[in-house]
């Protein structure tokens, strides 16, 4: 995700000073080679030293802690008044905590997780859900984020960007399993899958998963289910997001029965041989084991 | 449901011969009083004797068996070539079985369960999902159903109307719990519920339950959640529909993990003191127990 | 199950008149060949005509309805005062209904489902859980059942034998999944499985599944988990019993969240390639997918 | 728990130097008053300075981090060669991490969570599940733990004491819900609860929850269910332990479908008005809502 986002940012910001850092140095060097006029850092602290606006995109909470607060991390050399935007999807409490530590140093940190996937990152059409201490800092960040996305949504105080993201994704994760169970059941009971999808999509079962990302092969062209669940959003990434939702729920004593079960379903699917690299809609295929015997 | 449907039918069919039967005779008499020129039957067999087109709307599979196949039931006096439309939501296997028995008598029976609720029934804007042995019999039934609904959808062979209905409703039931868990979590974590709903509705968590029937009070006007969950679609009706889905799944060896858990959630909600007569979106309130302590 | 039960019964009852009937006639003929002095029936009604004491063992509710109430069924020729014992595991409401129909003919019907498996059937050590209208009829049945089992337990009115059986088996089915999840987790976190089992078995996690039928290979000798889950009680039979529990729960508005999820887990396991003929404790293996990657 | 454990320890160790520290100083002072010849500390570091053998009992991982690694924590003044035993139930990864930090300082830290409840703590009959780097350090700790418990079980390397505890408790938590669902179902279907319990306890559904802690009122005397679920092990404590199991499962990619659902059930029960201070077996009562209407 980080690469195409940085690429769009670079293209829009023109010839200004631009530093990049990737966990894998060859990736950073490739970026420099492709875009020219880019500096490559090998430590986060170097980025902090050189830049007053910083955008990060990291896989999980532990990496955010490391890059921000760890040895040679951003915090160690952070410029006062720096504007730092973290687009990682991590747990809201880590987001709030890191933001509050940076703020004590005079910097401003916003959480701005994205939706839209790698395709959205390439096209510059991502949605950013932004948590910011003040509307002013949100407006500041918007000027940056607009170069990488289309919808920049203000969600409230630091951490609420993460909250919005995980609440959205937990519904997505659940409704994909729901759509898979329903399509599988309907087909086994003799309905044509396209017809079933069209009935649902004009009725109260309609959701993003049935309309735009139907998990049953052949219903929609150009979605993962129609190319054996390749591409798309990996089942292990969805398992990670469901885990964030469940953790956040536990911290606030919110009951999440379906999110918890769904989390475990994705855990089971992703460890089933053959499913590790599949799109999350492959839960349909997983449910549809041996279908030919029962139809 | 049956009353307003019959009312619309009567208004459109004009002065033709019209018979009604209700489990509660006063209801049938009230219909006659209100509409005039209507005959009231006290046995289903009388209806079968008098009418060549029959529409039924019954609570559950057992009632359909009773009214169609039981003592003094429709079957006992059915006219050859009668057209019989059952709009009850029941399990697909009962639907198929009764249809096949009637067919042996020369009649045509279609399953045509509805979505749209009592408001849709009154307004004549119901959706009918129709299972019919032939496209011709579907077209025949459409001429009748159009007087009571707006969308008349052909779903395939007898029983597939039921299949479409329960597949749709199982997604609805699951996504309502998903929406409730997510809205509850987001609010407890400090997000404004309207803002959270608007983020979800422009992203991949979007579904009928978040957009048109949001379970969190105050997000939408004129939905049950904004009037303490009165009106709408009762939690016990949703529990019944989830049960139909789970039964159908068992018959076809289709795994329905989320539908089963959701079925039990509605079972538990509907037996919780204070929830028996609430709309099914009251699962939000049920999850939100003691929220003030944890927010 | 029926064969060894009948065999024990024949051995104890000595040279008295003895009729057998099996869905597969060669099985019945083999029984005659092996035991001699046995009559083979080809219709249930013949059994009813000839015998005043009848024991049945059938796979599911539908078969019980067929054999008792169907064409050429027991009911058609039942002797007044016949004593009929049904050892099938079926849903309690069917049991009650058939019993009450037979009673109107003057016969006495008891439900007496068993636990103990094929090994218990061969050894004559089965447990029978008996529902009977009167203590007297229970005592009568006991004289017969003692030839096939060791514990003959009176559970109450007709149907309660089934109730006891499904309540027991739903705990068994759930605790086997619980034991599998816990053993899998413990082993992945570095504990020796035998040591973990011994800690659990001397503490509050102790249950039949951890003590006598541990699902983790190598913990106990002579259980299915130590011979790649062959033999034992098939996963599809457990799925059937969980389904009976869930159905009974629905009829009485009893919430069964864990039983419902567990039912679906067994449904999923039994349709996973390679698991169809495995013992129900193979849920451990199913959970343990790709374990080598994560340990 | 800590108070009676310390009391037993003090009684057995006789007049040796004895320091205590409690989060609530009055509790520590009461201990001194009751036992005499006891020193009261106000900081963990003071304990570390004065004692070469230390036992801690804390509510959760965060408290362990604070008391061991925080400001004025044990680590700051730890004696080389100190023997430190933590009897808290916390997540295994925190246990391992803290143990490894202390070890770098030359100390030995063991995890030794307990089972047996406050009654066991008072009677000195607790079970300790011990994780220790070497068998020698386990033997050393055993000399201390024997003063407070009856069974001191060696589980393996640091962290495995926690692993054994949470694996045991997750089976306990699940089987209690299973027992509650089954007893509730059986009773609603007309079985006498004592009779049902006795059938289960001689069959394959037998578990600690049905035999020794039956959740259905009236089956056993002297258990929480027979005194409106007072005393015993609080539902929120069980929710905490289920949460530890689920977290550990996520870290090791172990699927825990039933543990996750059960975790959420206890979450929901403990936030239901009237249940916050109840024993965890009150899940029976929660399921049994409105039972009188459905029986």
From TrEMBL, chains A, B, C, D:
Documented EC number(s): 1.1.1.31
One GO BP annotation of this record: L-valine catabolic process
GO CC annotation terms, alphabetical: mitochondrion
One Pfam match: NAD_binding_11
Catalysed reactions, as listed in the record: 3-hydroxy-2-methylpropanoate + NAD(+) = 2-methyl-3-oxopropanoate + NADH + H(+)
Pathway: Amino-acid degradation; L-valine degradation
Stretches assigned to the 6-phosphogluconate dehydrogenase NADP-binding domain: 1-156
Molecular function as annotated in GO: 3-hydroxyisobutyrate dehydrogenase activity; NAD binding; NADP binding
Classification via InterPro entries: 6-PGluconate_DH-like_C_sf, 6PGD_dom2, 6PGDH_NADP-bd, HIBADH, HIBADH-like_NADP-bd, HIBADH-related, NAD(P)-bd_dom_sf
3-hydroxyisobutyrate dehydrogenase-like NAD-binding domain residues: 159-286
Keywords of this entry: Branched-chain amino acid catabolism, NAD, Oxidoreductase
Catalytic site: 165
Sequence similarity: Belongs to the HIBADH-related family. 3-hydroxyisobutyrate dehydrogenase subfamily.
Protein known as: 3-hydroxyisobutyrate dehydrogenase
């Amino acid at each position: 995700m980080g690469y195409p986002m940085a690429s769009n940012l670079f293209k829009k910001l023109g010839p200004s000073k631009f530093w990049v850092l990737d966990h894998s140095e060859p990736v950073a060097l490739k970026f420099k080679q492709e875009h020219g006029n880019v500096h490559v850092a090998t430590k986060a602290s170097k980025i902090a030293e050189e830049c007053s606006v910083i955008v990060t995109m990291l896989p999980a909470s532990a990496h955010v802690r490391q890059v921000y607060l760890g040895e040679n991390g951003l915090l160690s050399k952070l410029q006062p008044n720096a504007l730092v935007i973290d687009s990682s999807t991590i747990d809201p409490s880590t987001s709030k905590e890191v933001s509050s530590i940076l703020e004590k140093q005079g910097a401003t940190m916003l959480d701005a997780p994205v939706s839209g996937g790698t395709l959205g990152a390439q096209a510059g059409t991502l949605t950013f859900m932004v948590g910011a201490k003040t509307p002013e800092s949100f407006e500041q960040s918007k000027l940056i984020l607009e170069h990488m996305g289309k919808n920049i949504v203000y969600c409230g105080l630091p951490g609420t960007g993460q909250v919005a993201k995980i609440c959205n994704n937990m519904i997505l994760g659940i409704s994909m399993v729901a759509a898979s169970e329903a399509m599988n059941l309907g087909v086994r009971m003799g309905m044509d899958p396209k017809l079933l999808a069209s009935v649902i999509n004009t009725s109260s079962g309609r959701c993003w998963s049935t309309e735009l990302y139907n998990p049953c092969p052949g219903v929609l062209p150009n979605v993962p289910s129609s190319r054996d669940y390749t591409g798309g959003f990996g089942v292990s990434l969805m398992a990670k997001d469901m885990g964030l939702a469940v953790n956040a729920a536990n911290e606030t004593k919110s009951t999440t029965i379906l999110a918890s079960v769904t989390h475990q379903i994705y855990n089971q699917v992703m460890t089933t041989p053959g499913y590790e690299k599949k799109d999350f809609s492959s839960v349909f295929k997983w449910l549809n084991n041996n279908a030919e015997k029962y139809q």
